[in-house]
Amino acid sequence: MRVGVLTGGGDCPGLNAVIRAIVRKGVQEYGYDFTGFRDGWRGPLEGDTVRLDIPAVRGTLPRGGTILGSSRTNPLKVENGIRRIKDNLAKLDVQALVAIGGEDTLGVAARLSDEYGVPCVGVPKTIDNDLSATDYTFGFDTAVNIATEAIDRLHTTAESHMRVLVVEVMGRHAGWIALHSGLAGGANVILIPEQRFDVDQVCAWVTSRFRASYAPIVVVAEGAMPKDGDMVLKDGSLDSFGHVRLSGVGEWLAKEIESRTGKEARTTVLGHVQRGGTPSAFDRWLATRFGLHAIDCVRDGDFGTMVALRGTDIVRVPLAEATAKLKTVDPKLYAEIGVFFG
């Protein structure tokens, strides 16, 4: 049996660990052959492949990014995209496909499996941790650790100059990275997409912090919005899945704080550093287990499913269920940490 593997969407620490586990177990225990598709859904669309075998994945466990490359190609928006994918899979004798990605990549896999009969298995990947069917996605732990370390380092420079430091982290629709890193890093204000924020309240918390002779750290997710405003965009362009490019809420907020409080405010945008580089031990562990269970799904012919973490167990859930809604921060959880604001 020949199995195809692809990685789609933003790169993420742990992708190579998944690929490695799929290939190692698939070759050693099931005797499968593997074909890697380059650059997400562009690979099967264009028949762009790379051979995957045990030598190809050796030494990749601690490596960030993806050896297969990635893109945000949406085959559902390409003329004859589905037919081209099916024709290329048949031509390459690929009998099953493992798609590793977030809501967009897995949404395509769900439709291919449910509507077009393409045998797909999904593996959840996103640093945002916003897929509702799994307790955690790999990449999230690494992103939180990187953001927390940055916040730790920013405390000392903020206090040296007694200025406000606004830290912008990733999180388009869900504030999990901001929430976890902000709490772990001792931030004085945490702003997330799920709760519109009042700029005057933020300024009040900042002023309160200065009264205690400490310099405040404000952590804001890129998708956070003020009560009387809209999402801050880098530009008006959309990707093939209809997403706008986010960037700038941190800089906007720093200017508002400075003009309203008279205190100097600076911005640090962590950006892609959050999802680059070496994956954490937890992400290597989780990604490896996902890969092992994903190839078991292929062996069992259990297509149209995604592997997911529930507690400490890896379970299988329908792809359609996994991509039906996002997992966002519960208002009760956000309110729980409010005692640390200000």
From TrEMBL:
GO terms for MF: 6-phosphofructokinase activity; AMP binding; ATP binding; diphosphate-fructose-6-phosphate 1-phosphotransferase activity; fructose-6-phosphate binding; identical protein binding; metal ion binding; monosaccharide binding
Pfam families: PFK
Bilayer-crossing regions: none
Active site: D128 (proton acceptor)
Main location (coarse class): cytoplasm
HAMAP family, sorted: Phosphofructokinase_III
Purpose of the protein: Catalyzes the phosphorylation of D-fructose 6-phosphate, the first committing step of glycolysis. Uses inorganic phosphate (PPi) as phosphoryl donor instead of ATP like common ATP-dependent phosphofructokinases (ATP-PFKs), which renders the reaction reversible, and can thus function both in glycolysis and gluconeogenesis. Consistently, PPi-PFK can replace the enzymes of both the forward (ATP-PFK) and reverse (fructose-bisphosphatase (FBPase)) reactions.
Entry-linked PANTHER family: ATP-DEPENDENT 6-PHOSPHOFRUCTOKINASE 3, PHOSPHOFRUCTOKINASE
Full protein name: Pyrophosphate--fructose 6-phosphate 1-phosphotransferase
Lineage: Bacteria, Bacillati, Actinomycetota, Actinomycetes, Kitasatosporales
Gene that encodes it: pfkA1
